[in-house]
Amino acid sequence: GRVTVARISTGDELAPPGQADAPDNIPDSVSFGIAAMLAEAGAVLTQRSIGGDDLAALTHTAGKALAAADLVVVTGGASVGDRDFARPMFAPHGLELLWEKIAIKPGKPVWLGQAKGKLILGLPGNPSSPLVTARLFLTPILARLMGQDAALNWRTLTLAAPLPATGGRETFTRAVIGPDGLTPITNQDSSAQSPLHAATHLIRCPAGQGALDKGDRVSALDF
């Protein structure tokens, strides 16, 4: 059968799209992007939950998710703080961390664990970060669980515009493809949603890479 997935979004600030009418509310837009990736991969979304910052309630939600799916995908609550419950909510269920925090931008807080024989992928909360990390990690995990080739299809493409230098972390720059090649999107902020919607590719930029010019070749992944 197909791989089953449970989704948990964490944070008191989250509200369903169209209902984020309080000053501190943020629409839970990430769930829809993740759901589209799951559908494209052929996975079945068996459960979707929005959990507030209440550890007891989240622990109950985590247990239900582990019972309902082969893979649990959690967004938010991945930073270090008193109200970041993404990992603690799975601790009573026997969470074993496989890895946490990767020197990439965006998406440094991404983590992978397992509990009760199920995999748990923890993604950051800001819109760009979870969708970039889902493309990099969720899609290969789904492919592997389905017995398919899990390798990402990186291609060498031409820049249609300059690409700024990379900082200290390997960076995945959102870009738009056109007749002349890839144009990096100006706004790479992890909270920006419009540029995320426009992006067609991720450009892989090694840490410490110098600025590149139009016409230079880069490694890129369909996004």
C-alpha end-to-end distance: 27 Å
The largest beta-sheet arranges its strands as 4-1-5-9-8-6
Class computed from helices, strands and strand pairing: alpha/beta
* Number of DSSP E strands: 14
Biggest sheet descriptor: 6 strands, mixed
Beta-strand percent range: 25-35%
Spans of 5+ residues with little confidence (pLDDT < 50)?
Answer: none
Gross geometry: globular
Q: What's the helix-strand series?
A: EEEHEHEEEEEHEEEHEE
Number of helices: 4
Rg value: 18 Å
- What number is the mean pLDDT? 89
Helix content: 10-25%
Commentary on this structure:
With 223 residues, the chain is α/β, with parallel strands linked by helices. The protein is 22% helix and 31% strand. The protein contains 4 helices and 14 strands. Strands 4-1-5-9-8-6 form a 6-stranded mixed β-sheet, with helices on both faces. Strands 7, 10, 11, 12, 13 and 14 form a 6-stranded mixed β-sheet that branches. Helix 1 runs parallel beside helix 3. The longest helix has 18 residues. The mean pLDDT is 89.
In short:
With 223 residues, this protein is an alpha/beta fold.
